[in-house]
Amino acid sequence: MGVENMKIEVDCEPDHLKEQTPHRLRFNNRSVEVVDVLDRWLGADHGYFKVRGEDNATYILRHDVASGRWELVMFDRERRSSAG
Questions:
Q1: How many Å apart are CA 61 and CA 4, to the nearest integer?
Q2: What domain range is 55 assigned to?
Q3: What is the pTM of this model?
Q4: pLDDT tens column, 10-69
Q5: Is residue 83 domain-resident?
Q6: Which residues are CB-contacts of 61 (< 8 A; sequence separation ≥ 6)?
Q7: Is residue 63 part of a domain?
């Protein structure tokens, strides 16, 4: 199953600007702490967040402002080299 538009749960906390910002994601019986918000932007009716998780993966989250629902629209896990 791909992650495109996967429904997830997101816990938020106010950031330094007092805006609600993701700090934990929950999906597929996993919980991932957000360690960095890399980017954020607004669409016509959705807010988007590009975040890095404690698992060193990058996630793009879409927040439907009207319904309050969150979706995972992109996931990219940094591959580690086994050479060394």
A1: 10
A2: 6-77
A3: 0.81
A4: 999 877 766 778 999 998 888 999 999 999 998 888 999 999 999 999 999 999 888 889
A5: no
A6: 8, 10, 22, 25, 48, 49, 50, 51, 70, 71, 72, 73
A7: yes
